[in-house]
Amino acid sequence: MKRILIAASAVLLLGGCFPTGKTEGDPAQGRVDSLQRLLDQKDVELNDIMGSINEVQEGMRRINEAQGRVTIADGNRENASSKEVIRENMEFIQEAMQQNRDMIAQLKEKLRNSSLHADKLAKAIENLQKQVDEQARRIQELEAQLAEKDAQLAEQGEQISALTTENAAKDEKVAQQDAELHKAWFVFGLAKELREQKILTKGDVLRSGEFNKDYFTQIDIRYDKDIRFYSKSAKILTSHPSGSYNLTKDRQGQYELHITDPAKFWSVSKYLVVQVK
Protein backbone atom coordinates (compact mmCIF):
# COMPACT_ATOMS: atom_id res chain seq x y z
CA MET A 1 0.00 0.00 0.00
CA LYS A 2 2.92 2.33 0.66
CA ARG A 3 3.99 1.82 -2.94
CA ILE A 4 0.56 2.90 -4.12
CA LEU A 5 0.72 6.09 -2.06
CA ILE A 6 4.21 6.86 -3.44
CA ALA A 7 2.89 6.46 -6.98
CA ALA A 8 -0.06 8.70 -6.18
CA SER A 9 2.29 11.32 -4.73
CA ALA A 10 4.45 11.19 -7.84
CA VAL A 11 1.45 11.87 -10.03
CA LEU A 12 0.39 14.81 -7.87
CA LEU A 13 3.92 16.24 -7.83
CA LEU A 14 3.70 16.65 -11.57
CA GLY A 15 1.43 19.58 -10.87
CA GLY A 16 4.32 21.38 -9.19
CA CYS A 17 6.26 21.47 -12.47
CA PHE A 18 3.87 23.96 -13.97
CA PRO A 19 3.14 27.57 -12.92
CA THR A 20 -0.18 28.01 -11.17
CA GLY A 21 -0.62 31.70 -11.75
CA LYS A 22 -2.79 32.87 -14.64
CA THR A 23 -1.64 35.58 -17.00
CA GLU A 24 -4.28 37.34 -19.13
CA GLY A 25 -3.61 36.68 -22.77
CA ASP A 26 -0.74 34.29 -22.04
CA PRO A 27 -0.70 31.66 -24.82
CA ALA A 28 0.78 29.12 -22.37
CA GLN A 29 -2.28 29.36 -20.14
CA GLY A 30 -4.24 26.99 -22.37
CA ARG A 31 -1.58 24.37 -22.03
CA VAL A 32 -1.55 24.86 -18.24
CA ASP A 33 -5.33 24.42 -18.07
CA SER A 34 -5.12 21.31 -20.22
CA LEU A 35 -2.45 19.84 -17.98
CA GLN A 36 -4.50 20.72 -14.92
CA ARG A 37 -7.51 18.89 -16.34
CA LEU A 38 -5.27 15.92 -17.02
CA LEU A 39 -4.04 15.96 -13.44
CA ASP A 40 -7.60 16.20 -12.17
CA GLN A 41 -8.56 13.22 -14.34
CA LYS A 42 -5.62 11.21 -13.03
CA ASP A 43 -6.59 12.14 -9.47
CA VAL A 44 -10.14 10.87 -10.03
CA GLU A 45 -8.89 7.66 -11.61
CA LEU A 46 -6.40 7.13 -8.79
CA ASN A 47 -9.07 7.68 -6.13
CA ASP A 48 -11.37 5.23 -7.92
CA ILE A 49 -8.67 2.57 -8.08
CA MET A 50 -7.63 3.16 -4.47
CA GLY A 51 -11.26 2.86 -3.38
CA SER A 52 -11.58 -0.48 -5.19
CA ILE A 53 -8.37 -1.74 -3.59
CA ASN A 54 -9.70 -0.80 -0.16
CA GLU A 55 -12.94 -2.68 -0.91
CA VAL A 56 -11.03 -5.84 -1.81
CA GLN A 57 -8.95 -5.57 1.36
CA GLU A 58 -12.08 -5.07 3.45
CA GLY A 59 -13.64 -8.11 1.78
CA MET A 60 -10.57 -10.17 2.66
CA ARG A 61 -10.79 -9.03 6.27
CA ARG A 62 -14.44 -10.05 6.52
CA ILE A 63 -13.62 -13.42 4.94
CA ASN A 64 -10.95 -13.99 7.59
CA GLU A 65 -13.49 -13.20 10.32
CA ALA A 66 -16.01 -15.63 8.81
CA GLN A 67 -13.31 -18.28 8.53
CA GLY A 68 -12.60 -17.84 12.24
CA ARG A 69 -16.29 -18.32 13.08
CA VAL A 70 -16.35 -21.50 11.00
CA THR A 71 -13.29 -22.86 12.78
CA ILE A 72 -14.83 -22.19 16.20
CA ALA A 73 -18.15 -23.77 15.22
CA ASP A 74 -16.38 -26.80 13.72
CA GLY A 75 -14.70 -27.44 17.06
CA ASN A 76 -18.05 -27.30 18.85
CA ARG A 77 -20.21 -29.53 16.68
CA GLU A 78 -22.06 -31.00 19.63
CA ASN A 79 -23.87 -27.67 19.73
CA ALA A 80 -26.99 -27.98 17.59
CA SER A 81 -26.54 -24.49 16.09
CA SER A 82 -22.93 -25.05 14.98
CA LYS A 83 -23.90 -26.72 11.71
CA GLU A 84 -26.06 -23.73 10.77
CA VAL A 85 -23.26 -21.31 11.71
CA ILE A 86 -20.85 -23.21 9.45
CA ARG A 87 -23.30 -23.26 6.55
CA GLU A 88 -24.13 -19.55 6.76
CA ASN A 89 -20.50 -18.43 7.05
CA MET A 90 -19.30 -20.70 4.23
CA GLU A 91 -22.00 -19.26 1.99
CA PHE A 92 -20.87 -15.75 2.92
CA ILE A 93 -17.22 -16.67 2.24
CA GLN A 94 -18.02 -18.01 -1.22
CA GLU A 95 -19.99 -14.88 -2.12
CA ALA A 96 -17.27 -12.58 -0.76
CA MET A 97 -14.55 -14.51 -2.60
CA GLN A 98 -16.41 -14.13 -5.88
CA GLN A 99 -16.90 -10.41 -5.25
CA ASN A 100 -13.16 -10.01 -4.66
CA ARG A 101 -12.35 -11.88 -7.87
CA ASP A 102 -14.73 -9.64 -9.79
CA MET A 103 -13.26 -6.55 -8.14
CA ILE A 104 -9.69 -7.57 -9.05
CA ALA A 105 -10.76 -8.08 -12.67
CA GLN A 106 -12.38 -4.62 -12.67
CA LEU A 107 -9.24 -3.09 -11.14
CA LYS A 108 -7.08 -4.51 -13.90
CA GLU A 109 -9.51 -3.22 -16.49
CA LYS A 110 -9.65 0.24 -14.91
CA LEU A 111 -5.85 0.50 -14.81
CA ARG A 112 -5.59 -0.69 -18.40
CA ASN A 113 -8.06 1.94 -19.59
CA SER A 114 -6.82 4.74 -17.36
CA SER A 115 -4.37 7.50 -18.21
CA LEU A 116 -2.19 6.58 -15.21
CA HIS A 117 -0.08 3.77 -16.65
CA ALA A 118 1.57 3.41 -13.23
CA ASP A 119 3.77 0.36 -12.85
CA LYS A 120 3.57 0.61 -9.07
CA LEU A 121 -0.22 0.47 -9.16
CA ALA A 122 -0.05 -2.54 -11.47
CA LYS A 123 2.36 -4.19 -9.02
CA ALA A 124 0.06 -3.39 -6.11
CA ILE A 125 -2.91 -4.98 -7.91
CA GLU A 126 -0.78 -8.00 -8.77
CA ASN A 127 0.16 -8.40 -5.09
CA LEU A 128 -3.48 -8.04 -4.15
CA GLN A 129 -4.34 -10.80 -6.63
CA LYS A 130 -1.76 -13.06 -4.96
CA GLN A 131 -3.29 -12.38 -1.55
CA VAL A 132 -6.75 -13.22 -2.85
CA ASP A 133 -5.44 -16.42 -4.45
CA GLU A 134 -3.69 -17.42 -1.22
CA GLN A 135 -6.87 -16.79 0.75
CA ALA A 136 -8.80 -18.89 -1.77
CA ARG A 137 -6.31 -21.72 -1.25
CA ARG A 138 -6.83 -21.58 2.52
CA ILE A 139 -10.59 -21.64 2.05
CA GLN A 140 -10.28 -24.71 -0.17
CA GLU A 141 -8.28 -26.44 2.57
CA LEU A 142 -10.97 -25.48 5.07
CA GLU A 143 -13.68 -26.87 2.79
CA ALA A 144 -11.73 -30.12 2.45
CA GLN A 145 -11.38 -30.37 6.23
CA LEU A 146 -15.09 -29.72 6.72
CA ALA A 147 -15.98 -32.32 4.08
CA GLU A 148 -13.71 -34.87 5.76
CA LYS A 149 -15.23 -34.10 9.15
CA ASP A 150 -18.75 -34.41 7.68
CA ALA A 151 -17.83 -37.78 6.19
CA GLN A 152 -16.45 -38.97 9.53
CA LEU A 153 -19.53 -37.77 11.38
CA ALA A 154 -21.79 -39.41 8.80
CA GLU A 155 -19.89 -42.69 9.21
CA GLN A 156 -20.09 -42.40 12.98
CA GLY A 157 -23.78 -41.64 12.68
CA GLU A 158 -24.32 -44.76 10.59
CA GLN A 159 -22.35 -46.83 13.09
CA ILE A 160 -24.32 -45.38 15.98
CA SER A 161 -27.58 -45.96 14.12
CA ALA A 162 -26.61 -49.56 13.36
CA LEU A 163 -25.54 -50.08 16.97
CA THR A 164 -28.76 -48.52 18.22
CA THR A 165 -30.78 -50.76 15.93
CA GLU A 166 -28.79 -53.80 17.05
CA ASN A 167 -29.22 -52.88 20.72
CA ALA A 168 -32.91 -52.26 20.21
CA ALA A 169 -33.25 -55.70 18.60
CA LYS A 170 -31.34 -57.25 21.49
CA ASP A 171 -33.47 -55.37 24.02
CA GLU A 172 -36.62 -56.50 22.25
CA LYS A 173 -35.40 -60.08 22.21
CA VAL A 174 -34.50 -59.92 25.90
CA ALA A 175 -37.88 -58.37 26.65
CA GLN A 176 -39.61 -61.12 24.69
CA GLN A 177 -37.59 -63.79 26.47
CA ASP A 178 -38.30 -62.12 29.79
CA ALA A 179 -42.00 -61.91 29.02
CA GLU A 180 -41.94 -65.57 27.95
CA LEU A 181 -40.35 -66.54 31.25
CA HIS A 182 -43.07 -64.71 33.16
CA LYS A 183 -46.04 -66.11 31.25
CA ALA A 184 -48.63 -68.19 33.06
CA TRP A 185 -52.12 -69.39 32.25
CA PHE A 186 -55.27 -69.92 34.31
CA VAL A 187 -58.72 -71.26 33.74
CA PHE A 188 -61.78 -71.71 35.92
CA GLY A 189 -64.98 -73.48 35.04
CA LEU A 190 -67.48 -76.14 35.88
CA ALA A 191 -66.26 -79.73 36.00
CA LYS A 192 -68.24 -80.45 32.85
CA GLU A 193 -66.57 -77.60 30.98
CA LEU A 194 -63.12 -78.67 32.11
CA ARG A 195 -63.79 -82.22 30.95
CA GLU A 196 -65.07 -81.03 27.58
CA GLN A 197 -61.80 -79.15 27.06
CA LYS A 198 -59.83 -82.23 28.18
CA ILE A 199 -58.35 -80.20 31.01
CA LEU A 200 -59.87 -82.63 33.48
CA THR A 201 -59.85 -86.29 32.55
CA LYS A 202 -61.00 -89.04 34.88
CA GLY A 203 -60.38 -86.87 37.90
CA ASP A 204 -56.85 -85.93 36.84
CA VAL A 205 -55.94 -82.42 35.78
CA LEU A 206 -53.78 -81.64 32.75
CA ARG A 207 -52.79 -85.27 32.31
CA SER A 208 -53.91 -85.32 28.70
CA GLY A 209 -51.53 -83.69 26.27
CA GLU A 210 -54.53 -82.80 24.14
CA PHE A 211 -56.13 -80.30 26.52
CA ASN A 212 -57.33 -77.09 24.92
CA LYS A 213 -54.68 -74.46 25.71
CA ASP A 214 -56.74 -71.78 24.01
CA TYR A 215 -59.30 -72.12 26.76
CA PHE A 216 -56.80 -70.65 29.23
CA THR A 217 -56.21 -66.95 29.91
CA GLN A 218 -52.61 -65.81 29.65
CA ILE A 219 -51.20 -63.52 32.36
CA ASP A 220 -47.88 -62.00 33.38
CA ILE A 221 -46.97 -63.31 36.80
CA ARG A 222 -45.08 -60.12 37.64
CA TYR A 223 -48.22 -58.01 37.48
CA ASP A 224 -51.29 -60.26 37.56
CA LYS A 225 -51.51 -61.34 41.19
CA ASP A 226 -55.26 -61.20 41.83
CA ILE A 227 -57.76 -63.45 40.05
CA ARG A 228 -61.53 -63.38 40.60
CA PHE A 229 -63.60 -66.56 40.06
CA TYR A 230 -67.12 -65.06 40.35
CA SER A 231 -68.33 -68.11 42.23
CA LYS A 232 -69.15 -69.00 45.82
CA SER A 233 -67.41 -72.32 45.32
CA ALA A 234 -63.81 -72.62 44.09
CA LYS A 235 -61.37 -75.50 44.26
CA ILE A 236 -57.78 -75.26 43.02
CA LEU A 237 -57.00 -78.45 41.10
CA THR A 238 -53.37 -77.77 40.14
CA SER A 239 -50.46 -77.91 42.60
CA HIS A 240 -49.19 -74.64 44.05
CA PRO A 241 -47.05 -74.32 47.20
CA SER A 242 -48.90 -73.34 50.33
CA GLY A 243 -47.97 -70.00 51.79
CA SER A 244 -47.67 -68.46 48.32
CA TYR A 245 -51.34 -67.47 48.02
CA ASN A 246 -54.59 -66.72 49.79
CA LEU A 247 -57.98 -67.91 48.60
CA THR A 248 -60.57 -65.59 50.12
CA LYS A 249 -64.14 -64.41 49.61
CA ASP A 250 -65.23 -60.91 48.68
CA ARG A 251 -68.26 -59.06 50.13
CA GLN A 252 -70.60 -61.00 47.85
CA GLY A 253 -69.13 -64.28 49.10
CA GLN A 254 -67.41 -65.00 45.77
CA TYR A 255 -63.93 -66.45 45.77
CA GLU A 256 -60.85 -64.62 44.63
CA LEU A 257 -57.20 -65.62 44.60
CA HIS A 258 -54.41 -63.37 45.92
CA ILE A 259 -50.93 -64.53 44.94
CA THR A 260 -48.53 -63.30 47.60
CA ASP A 261 -45.36 -64.95 46.30
CA PRO A 262 -45.56 -65.26 42.49
CA ALA A 263 -42.18 -66.97 42.01
CA LYS A 264 -43.06 -69.63 44.55
CA PHE A 265 -46.71 -69.98 43.46
CA TRP A 266 -45.82 -70.69 39.82
CA SER A 267 -42.68 -72.72 40.54
CA VAL A 268 -44.48 -76.08 40.25
CA SER A 269 -46.71 -75.30 37.29
CA LYS A 270 -47.37 -72.35 35.03
CA TYR A 271 -50.97 -73.50 34.69
CA LEU A 272 -53.68 -72.78 37.23
CA VAL A 273 -56.91 -74.76 37.03
CA VAL A 274 -59.82 -73.92 39.33
CA GLN A 275 -63.11 -75.81 39.44
CA VAL A 276 -66.14 -73.70 40.32
CA LYS A 277 -69.83 -74.42 40.81
Folded structure, characterized:
The protein is of the alpha+beta class. It has 2 domains: 2-20 and 28-175, no CATH class; 182-276, no CATH class. The protein has 6 helices and 9 strands, in the order ααααβαβββββββαβ. The protein has helices at 2-13, 29-74, 82-113, 119-181, 191-196, 262-265, and strands spanning 183-189, 200-201, 204-205, 217-220, 226-228, 234-236, 245-249, 255-259, 271-276. The strands form 3 sheets. It has a 4-stranded mixed β-sheet with strand order 4-1-9-6. The longest helix is centred in the middle third of the chain and has 63 residues, at 119-181. It is rod-shaped and about 145 Å long. The model is unreliable at 1-23 (pLDDT under 50).
Nutshell version of this structure?
The protein is α+β, with helices and mostly antiparallel strands and 277 residues long. The protein has helices spanning 2-13, 29-74, 82-113, 119-181, 191-196, 262-265, and strands at residues 183-189, 200-201, 204-205, 217-220, 226-228, 234-236, 245-249, 255-259, 271-276. The chain folds into two domains: 2-20 and 28-175, no CATH class; 182-276, no CATH class.
User: How is the largest sheet built, in terms of strand order?
Assistant: 4-1-9-6
Number of strands: 9
Q: Average pLDDT across residues? A: 86
Order of helices and strands: HHHHEHEEEEEEEHE
Main sheet summary: 4 strands, mixed
Distance between the termini: 110 Å
